[in-house]
């Protein structure tokens, strides 16, 4: 393992030196443009495919395998690390299209440094150094490794967005502000949908243990986001331009509604209480954003469908809370396993809303309009991406669930007709969203000891 650590250290130094020494040629870039008119060459396409597969698939799957302490975690992450290094160098060796200095290239160095740190922690923990000084710092290393590991999907998403923006030469000069608004807000909708999916499929027990309703956390986040929007959407002291007033008023609605939602999220006795305030905020946001004045007919139609989709997400949430769940936390008060098919609708519509909003920037709309792409075709493609992302998130959560709650613990009927585990216990072991730690790094001796205790406990209960 020491040789492997040295290899990664040398690789890290090479990457840093390459990042410092490399300069993109820009002699073919017209004045005032961000990219040259040349097409993307094969080398750069290979770079794009490798990094999408690595950061979009291998690392997230490896993260889940680390959380469930699978023996495949280390091999998969090692393969991902090797492909990342290959893709990094290919990104600096391409011909064809040239790019001015850009955020994608700048952030790549930071991302590679994070990966090197992550792999270094992983190798250190797998050495199982637990005596003396190592015993004191080990728990902090485990926490750091876990936090960085769970941060990687978010960081990877940001870098992939930067890559797409850079490839097309978008989001510069006067377009930067509206680009930031679209990509940040769109990503926020997708992130909210992912959080709802996690809580729906594996997080109900964690939510119950917090003693709070889901609307408490939703409303708190809405209020905080509203405060930020209220004071950042307009340059105070300057003139009100374009949609400044509309964006600022939307921020005001958010923090006002968020405060109300927080207050209504608890009963008089302190017990958690569901409410509809976050869903109403989603509806108002969809209505407000769909009414933004647009310069192109295509942009107007895409924004309208985005607004309708977001309003549908809020309406679906109202139906779910008020009529499907009837103000309960979940359909199954014991462990939250039972899910109504209607509950999948809100997360999916949030995914779709995010893709629609991210795909509606001024430059994208101008490009599609000049290519005579209809709004119907474009919107169907964006909805297809939402379906695929929902599928991918559900598959990751399924991978987690089947490892934490194995199918071998099948349920059987007892004398009074209730469902029980083979050992006579109704409740399952809970390892949901709160335990999303990369705990596959504790020593094998600890694992064996824990397994021995579990076997002894099972024998005692059966006796």
Strand content: under 5%
Instruction: Give the overall pLDDT as a whole number.
Output: 82
Assembly level: single chain
SS summary, helix count: 15
Number of strands: 2
What is the radius of gyration?
25 Å
Indicate the overall shape: globular
Distance between the termini: 45 Å
Low-confidence stretches: 1-13, 15-22, 408-446
Order of helices and strands: HHHHHHHHHHHHHHEEH
Helix content: 55-70%
As laid out across the biggest beta sheet, the strand order is 1-2
The secondary structure category is: mainly alpha
Largest sheet: 2 strands, antiparallel
Notable traits:
single chain; 463 residues; mainly alpha; 15 helices; 2 strands; globular; disordered N terminus
Question: Could you explain the architecture of this structure?
Answer:
- The chain has 463 residues and is mainly α.
- The chain contains 15 helices and two strands.
- The chain has helices spanning 2-21, 42-67, 73-91, 103-126, 133-168, 176-201, 204-210, 214-232, 244-263, 277-290, 297-324, 345-358, 362-370, 375-404, 444-462, and strands spanning 412-413, 419-420.
- A two-stranded antiparallel ribbon has the order 1-2.
- Strand 1 (412-413) and strand 2 (419-420) form a beta hairpin.
- The longest helix has 36 residues, at 133-168.
- The chain is globular.
- The model is unreliable at 1-13, 15-22 and 408-446 (pLDDT under 50).
């Amino acid at each position: 393992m020491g040789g492997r650590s040295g290899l990664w250290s040398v690789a890290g130094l090479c990457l840093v030196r390459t990042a410092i020494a490399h300069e993109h040629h820009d002699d073919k870039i017209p004045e005032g443009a961000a990219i040259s008119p040349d097409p993307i060459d094969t080398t750069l396409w290979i770079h794009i495919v490798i990094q999408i597969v690595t950061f979009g698939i291998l690392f997230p799957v490896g993260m889940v395998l680390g959380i469930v302490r699978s023996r495949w975690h280390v091999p998969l992450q090692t393969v991902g690390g090797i492909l990342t290094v290959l893709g990094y160098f290919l990104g600096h060796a391409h011909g064809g299209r040239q790019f001015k200095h850009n955020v994608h290239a700048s952030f790549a160095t930071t991302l590679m440094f994070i990966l090197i740190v992550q792999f270094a922690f992983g190798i250190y923990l797998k050495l199982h150094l637990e005596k003396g000084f190592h015993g004191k710092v080990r728990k902090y290393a485990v926490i750091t490794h876990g936090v960085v590991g769970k941060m990687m999907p978010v960081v990877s998403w940001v870098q992939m967005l930067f890559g797409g923006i850079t490839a097309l030469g978008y989001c510069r000069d006067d377009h930067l502000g509206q680009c930031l608004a679209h990509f940040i807000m769109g990503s926020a909708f997708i992130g909210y949908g992912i959080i709802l999916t996690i809580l729906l499929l594996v997080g109900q027990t964690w939510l119950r243990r917090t003693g709070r309703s889901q609307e408490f956390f939703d409303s708190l986040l809405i209020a905080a986001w509203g405060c930020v929007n209220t004071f950042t959407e307009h340059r105070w002291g300057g003139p009100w331009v374009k949609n400044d007033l509309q964006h600022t008023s939307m921020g005001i609605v958010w923090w006002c509604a968020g405060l109300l939602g927080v207050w209504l999220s608890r009963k008089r006795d302190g017990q958690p209480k569901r409410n509809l305030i976050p869903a109403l905020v989603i509806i108002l946001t969809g209505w407000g954003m769909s009414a933004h004045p647009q310069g192109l007919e295509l942009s107007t139609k895409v924004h309208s469908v985005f607004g309708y989709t977001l309003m549908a997400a809020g309406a679906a949430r109202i139906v779910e809370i008020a009529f499907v769940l009837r103000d309960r936390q979940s359909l199954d008060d014991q462990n939250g396993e039972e899910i109504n098919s209607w509950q999948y609708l809100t997360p999916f519509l949030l995914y779709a809303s995010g893709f629609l909003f991210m795909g509606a920037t001024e430059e994208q709309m101008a490009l599609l309009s000049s290519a005579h792409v209809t709004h119907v075709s474009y919107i169907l493609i964006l909805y297809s991406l939402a379906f695929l992302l929902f599928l991918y998130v559900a598959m990751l959560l399924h991978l987690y669930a089947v490892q934490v709650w194995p199918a071998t613990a099948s349920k059987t009927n007892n004398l009074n007709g209730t469902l029980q585990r083979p050992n006579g216990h109704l409740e399952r072991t809970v390892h949901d969203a709160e335990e999303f730690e990369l705990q596959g790094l504790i020593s094998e001796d600890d694992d064996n000891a824990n397994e021995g205790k579990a076997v002894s406990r099972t024998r005692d209960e059966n006796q």
